[in-house]
Backbone:
């Protein structure tokens, strides 16, 4: 079953955690020094915030799926949208190891479709950066290859 995914960059993590915890009437499922995530069931949403962006606001949208068959179906649908698709395959990002691909809509909004395989203790694993030079970022951010996503030496 799919879970809608929203990732937002924030300036003040503690203030944002307090706000969204009240808004959702739920505490985050995971909190790190630079990241928080709520896994809501009604509606089914994976809502994440982090301080790793260039500016506050929407970073990307997407779908988290429960198995590789659903991910393959989303990939086929994304390919049929006639936009460039970035297939990362197995990667590490946002304190998780996942299989994922990205597509960007005509307005420039990045969409991430992924299947989470395991939790990891770090935002990303050293040496697991993408070929574009940036990690854990949707395609438009990778094109800029800024260091906003990862701390120095992590990518």
Residues:
């Amino acid at each position: 079953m799919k879970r809608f995914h929203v990732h937002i960059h924030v300036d003040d993590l503690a203030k944002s955690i307090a706000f969204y915890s009240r808004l959702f009437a739920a505490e985050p499922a995971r909190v790190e020094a630079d990241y928080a995530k709520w896994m809501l069931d009604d509606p089914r949403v994976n809502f994440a915030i982090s301080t790793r962006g260039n500016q506050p606001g929407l970073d990307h949208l997407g779908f988290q799926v429960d198995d590789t068959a659903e991910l393959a179906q989303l990939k086929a649908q994304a390919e049929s949208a006639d936009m460039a698709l970035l297939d990362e395959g197995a990667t590490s990002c946002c304190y998780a190891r996942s299989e994922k691909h990205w597509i960007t809509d005509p307005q420039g909004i990045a969409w991430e479709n992924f299947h989470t395989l395991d939790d990891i203790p770090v935002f990303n694993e050293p040496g697991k950066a993408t070929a574009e030079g940036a990690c854990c970022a949707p395609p438009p951010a990778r094109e800029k290859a800024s260091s906003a996503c990862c701390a120095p030496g992590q990518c």
The longest helix spans residues 68-80.
